[in-house]
Amino acid sequence: MSGMSARAHRTVGLTLQRLLGLLALQVVVFGAIGCQRDSFKEPLVLGGTSVSARTLNRGHRAYLRYCVGCHGRKGDGNVPGQEQMNPMPRDFTKGRFKYTSVLGDQLPPDRDLLRLLRTGVPGTHMPSWSTVEPAELKAIVQYIKTFSPRWRKEKVGTPLPLPHDPWARDADKARRRGRVVYHGVARCWQCHPSYLGEDEIRRLQSRLPVNERLPLRANPRQPLSVPTEYGPTLAPAFKKYQLRGGNRPSDVFRTIATGIPGTPMPAWHPKLSGRELWALTHYVRSLVGLEPGIKDNESQTRVNRK
Ligand code: HEC
Ligand code: HEC
Predict the structure, then answer these.
(1) pLDDT digits (tens, 9 = 90+) for 72-94
(2) To 10 degrees, the CA torsion angle through 161, 167, 172, 177?
(3) What tens digit of pLDDT does each residue of 216-233 get?
(4) Could you tell me if 242 and 290 are in contact, meaning their C-beta atoms sit under 8 angstroms apart?
(5) Does ligand 1 have an atom closer than 6 angstroms to the CB of 116?
(6) Counting atoms of ligand 1 from 1, which one is nearest the CA of 97?
(7) Could you tell me if 108 and 102 are in contact, meaning their C-beta atoms sit under 8 angstroms apart?
């Protein structure tokens, strides 16, 4: 009898212990999830603006849902298969972005990052997130800033103002002027293809002082491969290219004016005037097929098509 009760007691004891163990395990598991769900307890100052813990936690959850597969848990883009993507997913720990409205290496304002999330980066693996709720996108933008120490130390840069397009009424004239700036002034063919014959480039350069003229590189109709922080990259051949920083005239103006940090694509502001930058904007948009081609006389057209 006493043996029985002792055994029964032991059984009850074991069950209780097991139950307690299970409970403890649950506390640990839920605790961890809870922890992950609310990794931020305090607001953070990012790029000079205070962001609430609530927004950061929301951004974190959305990031784990949409972005982690390519940009990684640590935001460093270190995920299996990343090397198969060209360009590779961005490493956010560097706090450096390609398509922004600020000059040099300054941190971009939120609206640059939001625009980028809405459009994605066409022609790369970075998709558009335009179907995600705007408040959620805004929270993700805040969250990705937590990956790089730069956002805790520096303030957001000042966007380059967008001047009024002086060619709005005569886009064809703008494209012709843009072609001259492209081939004879800025000489974008140092990296990108040339779209005029060598004689014409020589003729355009003859307007410059002799010591400023540049020799044409070999195969000027082919784009040049240049070293960048992201690995060797072809300067785009515009006739077979989808603009990555956006298609609208204001996007193209901004990309040419502010350049692409981390690559040899320079900022052309303030080397070129607003008027020249707008002319280039129309010309580049015509090369990629977003605006009509230049209406030239026949010989000129043939030169262009070559
Ligand atoms: C299928 C893979 C993939 C997913 C998913 C993805 N990205 Fe990207 N992302 C990329 C690639 C590839 C690039 C590099 C594009 C380039 O260098 O031009 C990139 C670049 C970026 C950039 C840098 C843009 C710049 O101007 O330099 C940001 C910001 C970004 N992604 C944010 C996000 C966010 C936020 C999410 C989730 C909502 C996300 N990405 C989901 C692949 C992805
Ligand atoms: C020293 C080399 C170099 C010169 C000179 C240069 N570029 Fe670029 N450019 C690049 C490279 C490299 C890229 C691609 C960067 C990348 O995709 O990461 C690029 C990209 C671009 C893009 C694509 C942006 C997008 O949205 O995808 C445009 C437009 C552009 N350049 C315009 C110009 C114009 C106009 C000039 C002359 C005023 C010029 N570039 C001069 C190297 C150069």
Answers:
(1) 999 999 999 888 899 999 999 99
(2) -70
(3) 999 999 999 999 999 999
(4) no
(5) yes
(6) 27
(7) yes
